[in-house]
Amino acid sequence: MTSKIYIIRNLFSSTLCKTYISFLTSLPLITTPGRPKKDEALRVNDRFQVDDASFAELLWSGTGLKELVCSSASQSENEDDGEKVDWDGEVLGLNPNIRIYRYTKGQFFGQHYDESVQVMHGTPPVKGRTSWTLLIYLSTCSGGETAFYPEPGPASKKGRAQSQPEPVVVGMETGMALLHRHGDECLLHEGREVTGGEKWVIRSDLVVRR
Question: Which residue, of 41, 76, 129, 191, has the greatest Cβ tally within 10 A?
């Protein structure tokens, strides 16, 4: 499972997270519709979205994220086989489509898959596609964990179906980044209901050359 989930602790300092939250509260956040469109997961949160290549570059080059990803030297904490992380191609940077999420008590994001999208990245523009979701947590709260649901393994030689594996649950830490594969390799996942406090998230994606 570690080949699809990657955690970076303390990417942001707690002070920086507070500064971001102070600014983000001033943005015109929009509450998602109560009824999702066809084939969309039910979610209830407040969000803001903007295309900002400069901010995406700041997140990429100004936080140490670029060095961690491109070197592939840091491995997820449970990865003990010495293999480097597969980012699914030559990483170009982050998706300039920046999304801000705020979840308050009772809000959640139902089970869903994240799709890969094609983007033009950089100047001059290079053809790219997104391969991993990036979530940066600016706060902690009660509830609100991200739960991943692995698919059962293949049936045994006797034809017996494998039991459903236990979900992989990732709790939040202030300043922590969570990367997980999306597109064809995406695990079914959800953002569990917040039961207390507020959950603030900056969302982008890794972009690889196509």
Answer: 191
pLDDT score recorded for residue 158: 64
Bond into 124 cis (ω within 30): yes
Distance, in Å, from the CA atom of 210 to the CA atom of 119, rounded to the nearest integer, reads 9
Q: Which residues contact 43 (CB under 8 A, 6 or more apart)?
A: 32, 36, 108, 109, 110, 112, 191
**Beta partners for 25?**
none
Backbone dihedral region for residue 160 (phi beyond 0: left; psi -120 to 50: alpha; all else: beta) = beta
What pLDDT, on the 0 to 100 scale, is given for residue 3? 86
Does the pLDDT at position 117 exceed 70?
yes
Max alpha carbon distance in the chain (Å)? 60
Angstrom distance (rounded) from CA 210 to CA 207: 9
